[in-house]
Specification:
Blueprint (H helix, E strand, L loop, with lengths): L3 E4 L2 E4 L2 E2 H8 L3 E5 H14 L5 E6 L6 H9 L3 E4 L2 H9 L7 E3 L6 H10 L3 E4 L2 H13 L4 E8 L21 E2 L3 H9 L4 E7 L10 H19 L6 E3 L16 H9 L8 E4 L3 H4 L3 E12 L4 E5 L8 H5 L5 E3 L8 E6 L8 E8 L7 E4 L20 E6 L2 E6 L4 H4 L9
Parallel strand pairs: 4-20, 5-6, 5-13, 6-7, 7-8, 8-9, 9-10, 9-11, 11-12, 12-13, 15-17
Antiparallel strand pairs: 1-2, 2-3, 4-14, 14-15, 14-19, 16-19, 17-18, 20-21
Helix pairs in contact: 5-6, 6-7, 8-9
The structure holds pyridoxal-5'-phosphate (PLP).
Length: 416
């Protein structure tokens, strides 16, 4: 395992023992490695350095302020899908000219906030949205850069819930509708069509779809340039694959080659929007075994972490490695690792093998840096977990554990 190493049978992230973190901060606890996040950003920037490329981190993967600061300090921009994400990026000091606003359902308030900040671009997804951004730009006397999100209908063989580049999904314009979208854009001198974008989905573990999408965007952009639309950038979205099971995935150099080669010699700035790839491996979820129980068919480890901290197993049947923080010698036994939430889908891992394990033991769940905390919820009135950042032997608390009262602080007890 890359992130967690064992010394004397005990698990460490960088130079800090996970057991000590559990004892100090309680569980469930998110633990991130500063070095791992910085290294990911570094490799991305290096791998994409052959052709001018703006790397925009997709905040939805993990938007903890301290993590954002780390990532933006490395020189990355941001891909945001809500006003909240935009505000967080700005709050940690990211210049707005490095912010791309994506998403099919931007509200009027969100668009106005983006206009006022003069962000890099709005990736637009429907004719009604173009009309609204156009009208608001006129009203705000703003010159607004937009890009058309193209739905290239490329099947990427990932989990159907995270495939976004197919006609049956809600995303983007099919190529056949570009012409009518251009006509609408032409009604608004305030709108500058600066780019084309697409996002094929997540967990794309082969480079073919990127090459195909890049070729198509280059082709469409060349065409638009000939028609007098000076396209400046092509945004290929995110989706670089991470192997939670330890299987081989394409290297960044391979993704970069597939995306950049079709644009070679062309005047386009390229944009990529990785989220998962940057943070997935950098974080683990630390939890404690509350109870062990067995029935004639199954053994269970019931942990204090659940689908409210990590919903990916319940949502996508996603696999995450799970290991004991202290490894004891002895025969292996097979367990389902489950949480306390009252749903059968509240499991973290099924049929996992552990050596001798007792209640009170700490377990770590790997690859939780992306779509872990950011998808956390209060279901079952569970307070959100604390988060810490490890840097060598230093530990910084980067999110307080919520109190129970925090969970209902916005509720109003009606007097009838
Ligand atoms: C989700 C998303 C991303 C990031 O996807 P990852 O798989 O985390 O890299 C990038 N761009 C857009 C438009 C997205 O919706």
């Amino acid at each position: 395992m890359g992130l967690v190493t064992y010394k004397g049978g005990n698990a460490y992230v960088e130079s800090v023992s996970l057991q000590s973190l559990g004892e100090r901060f309680g569980t469930p606890l998110y633990v991130y490695s500063r070095k791992k996040i910085q290294d990911s950003c570094d490799s991305l920037l290096k791998s994409f350095s052959k052709h001018p490329t703006l790397v925009c981190y997709a905040l939805k993967a993990n938007s903890n302020l301290s993590i954002l600061k780390l990532i933006f300090d490395q020189g990355l921009g941001a891909d945001v899908v809500s006003h909240g994400e935009m505000k967080k990026a700005q709050h940690v000091g990211l210049p707005s000219e490095r912010i791309i606003f994506s998403g099919v359902g931007k509200t009027r308030e969100e668009i106005i906030a983006g206009l006022h900040s003069n962000i890099f671009s709005f990736n637009v997804e429907s004719v009604e949205e173009i009309n609204l951004i156009g009208e608001l730009s006129r009203q705000e006397k703003s010159k607004t850069r937009i890009s058309l999100r193209i739905n290239p209908n490329i099947n990427v063989r990932t989990n159907p819930y995270i495939a976004t580049g197919l006609y049956k999904t809600k995303f983007g314009f099919p190529e056949s509708q570009i012409k009518s979208a251009l006509a609408v854009i032409n009604n608004f001198p305030e709108l500058h069509l600066a780019g084309l974008s697409c996002h094929l989905g997540s967990q794309i573990k082969n480079t073919g779809p990127y090459r195909e999408a890049s070729k198509r965007l280059v082709h469409v952009a060349d065409d638009l340039r000939n028609q007098g639309f000076p396209i400046e950038f092509l945004d290929l979205g995110g989706g670089f694959g991470v192997s939670y099971e330890g299987k081989k995935t394409p290297s960044l150099a391979e993704y970069a080659k597939a995306i950049q080669e079709p644009a070679k010699g062309r005047p386009y700035l390229l944009v990529v929007e990785p989220g998962r790839w940057i943070v997935a491996e950098s974080g683990i979820l630390l939890s404690k075994v509350l109870y062990k129980k067995s029935n004639p068919h199954k053994n269970f480890l019931i942990t204090d972490a659940s689908m409210t901290e990590l919903i990916r197993p319940a949502l996508y049947e996603a696999y995450h490695p799970i290991e004991a923080c202290k490894k004891r010698k002895g025969p292996l036994r097979t367990y389902d690792v489950v949480g306390p939430v009252c749903e059968t889908s509240d499991f973290l891992g099924l049929k996992r093998k552990f050596g001798p394990t007792e209640s009170g033991d700490y377990l770590w769940i790997g690859f939780c840096g992306a779509y872990g905390s950011s998808m956390g919820s209060h279901y079952n009135v569970r307070p959100r977990a604390a988060e810490v950042l490890v840097d060598g032997n230093r530990v910084t608390l980067i999110r307080n554990r919520e109190s129970t009262e925090d969970v209902w602080k916005n509720e109003i007890l009606s007097e009838y």
